[in-house]
Amino acid sequence: MTIRVAVTGATGKLGSVAVRLIEQADDLELVAALDSRTSLEAMRGADVLLDVTLPSVSERIVRYGLDEGLNVVVGTSGWSAERIAGVAGGLGAEQGVIVIPNFSLGSALATSFAAQAATFFDSIEIIEAHRATKIDSPSGTAVRTAELIGEARAQVGPPLAPHSDQRARGQQVAGVPIHSMRVNGLAARQQVLLGGQGETLTITHDTLDSSAYEAGILLALRRAATQRGITVGLENLIDLSGAPTGGRPSKTGARPEKSGPAE
């Protein structure tokens, strides 16, 4: 089955990667590549909408896509739990929305590892750094990581976060302080620091190039056609005991018959 895809934010950094992948894949078809000047009506006829725009316009675009009967993959930052809940109420019985704070498989794994470790350490903080032009902070990835840490610690209570009134100690999300840096020359880095009696554990993920997002984009698009309800996080689309369901893209962008372990 060929999945017909429309991309909003198609001329942006992530959008241009997605457009190239869709055009190269033999099981995906690009219906429309929309930029800020394109009418949203251009997405009609697609099965799946991939939104990689800006936080200020993303919700309107996603709601339009859902109203047109599309399933949606949201790759735009700034989708809080409250915003996701608002969209969930308008879903049709046969529709699905996949919200991906970060399309990198390594990032999804690092976030999952941090959540697994969270109950073993009471002192937990996140440091995230991105390019200077990134407009939101904390990053969607950091927010998602903090939320999963909070969920993992639901039975034991929030991490230790003294001096929460001191702004330099970071913005707290689900009780976890997050420190954001925006620096020229960086792609993306996140560190989760966990401290215990006489030891620390640091889980670090670095994105070195936009190619890190390719496997996650393809996986999300392929799953979106049949996904129902709300799914948040790439970690919920991959088998954490093995290889990703969708596999890494081949050199031509086509879906490989077999997938190896994530790099």
Describe the SSE topology.
Layout: E1 3-8, H1 13-24, E2 28-34, E3 48-51, H2 55-67, E4 71-74, H3 81-88, E5 96-99, H4 105-117, E6 123-130, H5 140-152, E7 171-173, E8 176-182, E9 188-196, E10 199-207, H6 214-224, E11 229-232
Parallel strand pairs: 1-2, 1-3, 3-4, 4-5, 5-11, 6-8
Antiparallel strand pairs: 6-9, 7-8, 9-10
Structure summary:
Helices cover 27% and strands 25% of the residues. With 263 residues, it is of the alpha/beta class. The strands form two sheets. It has a six-stranded parallel β-sheet, sandwiched between helices. Strands 7-8-6-9-10 form a five-stranded mixed β-sheet.
Give an overview in words.
It is elongated and about 60 Å long. The protein is an alpha/beta fold and 263 residues long. The protein contains 6 helices and 11 strands. It has helices spanning 13-24, 55-67, 81-88, 105-117, 140-152, 214-224; strands at residues 3-8, 28-34, 48-51, 71-74, 96-99, 123-130, 171-173, 176-182, 188-196, 199-207, 229-232. The protein folds into 2 domains: 3-103 and 210-236, Rossmann fold (3-Layer(aba) Sandwich); 105-207, Dihydrodipicolinate Reductase, domain 2.
